[in-house]
Specification:
This protein is of the alpha/beta class. Helices cover 24% and strands 26% of the residues. The longest helix has 28 residues, at 282-309. The radius of gyration is 22 Å and the shape is elongated.
Length: 310
C-alpha cells in the first residue's frame, strides 16, 4: 500500500509528489501520457520564475527529475475509478488496483476545441488557448479572439497590450461577459467585433496562421479575416469523468477543495487546473501541489494519532 497516489503528472501532480516523497512518504504518480501535461504542448514558457525562457517540454523534464529524486514512482495508466474504502482508497486502472492511504487528484483540464479545419494543424503556430502564456509573442500583430464570455473578453483586453489590433469573433449579437468587462472592451480602441459570426476554418502557410474563414450565421456570408494569431476561448473541460459520481465536483465537473486542497472525502485532495478556481497557470499549479504534498503528510500523521488514542 502506498502512502500517496498522485493521479496526473502535470506541474501540480509532480510538485505534490516531490513534497510528499521528501517527507519520506511512499508515492506513486499515475499518468496517462508523457509527464508534463499541457507544458508538453507549450513551445516557450517565459513567465515561470527562475527562467527567462524555457521550452515547455524541458521544464516538464526538470520537474519530473525533481519529482522522482526522493523515490516517487512514475507509473503509466488510465485511471477509471477511485474507490473510498474508509481507512484507505483504491485507485483502479485498466489492469491494476492500487491501494493507498491518500489520493491527490491532479488530472487537469483541456481547452474545448472549435473542431474546425486548421485548428490542430496550426496549434502552437498561431493558434493558442492562453493569452497570458503566448500574448507577448504577438507584439504589433493583428489577433482574433473567438468567444464571448468572461474569459474571451478579458483575454482580448489583455492582448491589446501587445497586439496592434484585436478582433473578437462571437456567434451572437451581444457578449455573454459581465457588463463591467464588456464596458472595458467597448472602451478599448484596439478592440473591434465581428457579431453573429463563427470560425469555419483557420488558414495559413507553411509557417503560421494567416487568417480565419468567418461565416455570418444570419446571412450565411463567408469571408476571410486576416490575422497573425487566433486565441480560442469557448470553454474548458475538466478531466474528472472518473470522479463525478463521488460527489467531489460541482455541476460543471470542477473539483471543489478548501485552501488546504482537501476535498469532501477524507484523504482525497485535488490540485492544479482540475480545481474550482480562477487562475490556471503553471505557477498556481505548483503552489497547489506544494500545499497538498505537505497536507497528505499531516493527514497521515493525524491518522496515526487517532489509532494510538483508540
Amino acid at each position: 500500500m502506498y502512502d500517496v497516489i498522485v493521479i496526473g503528472a502535470g506541474p501540480a501532480g509532480m510538485t505534490a509528489a516531490l513534497y510528499a516523497s521528501r517527507s519520506n512518504l511512499s508515492v506513486a504518480m499515475i499518468e496517462r501520457g508523457a509527464p508534463g501535461g499541457q507544458m508538453n504542448n507549450t513551445a516557450e514558457v517565459d513567465n515561470y520564475p527562475g527562467f527567462e525562457m524555457i521550452l515547455g517540454p524541458d521544464l516538464a523534464d526538470k520537474m519530473l527529475e525533481g519529482a522522482t529524486k526522493f523515490g516517487a514512482e512514475n507509473l503509466y495508466g488510465i485511471v477509471q475509478e477511485v474507490r473510498d474504502c474508509g481507512e484507505y482508497q483504491e485507485v483502479v486502472t485498466g489492469d491494476q488496483v492500487y491501494q493507498t492511504k491518500t489520493v491527490i487528484l491532479a488530472t487537469g483540464c483541456e481547452h474545448r476545441k472549435l473542431g474546425v479545419k486548421g485548428e490542430e494543424e496550426f496549434a502552437g503556430r498561431g493558434v493558442s488557448y492562453c493569452a497570458v502564456c503566448d500574448g507577448a509573442f504577438f507584439r504589433n500583430r493583428k489577433l482574433l479572439v473567438i468567444g464571448g464570455g468572461d474569459s474571451a473578453v478579458e483575454e482580448a483586453a489583455y492582448l491589446t497590450q501587445f497586439a496592434s489590433e484585436v478582433v473578437i469573433v462571437h456567434r451572437r449579437d451581444e457578449l455573454r461577459a459581465q457588463k463591467v468587462i464588456q464596458d472595458r472592451a467597448f472602451a478599448n480602441e484596439k478592440i473591434s467585433f465581428l457579431w453573429d459570426s463563427v470560425a469555419e476554418e483557420i488558414v495559413g502557410n507553411d509557417m503560421a496562421v494567416t487568417g480565419v474563414r468567418i461565416k455570418n450565421v444570419k446571412t450565411g456570408e463567408i469571408h476571410e479575416e486576416s490575422a497573425n494569431g487566433v486565441f480560442i476561448y469557448v470553454g474548458l473541460d475538466p478531466l474528472t469523468e472518473p470522479f463525478r459520481s463521488s460527489g467531489l465536483t460541482n455541476e460543471e465537473g470542477w473539483i471543489k477543495t478548501d485552501d488546504e486542497m482537501r476535498t469532501a472525502i477524507p484523504g482525497v485532495f485535488a490540485v492544479g487546473d482540475v480545481r474550482e478556481k480562477n487562475l490556471r497557470q503553471i505557477t498556481t499549479a505548483v503552489g497547489d501541489g506544494s500545499i497538498a504534498g505537505q497536507e497528505v503528510f499531516n493527514y497521515i500523521e493525524a491518522q496515526k494519532d487517532v489509532k494510538v488514542s483508540k
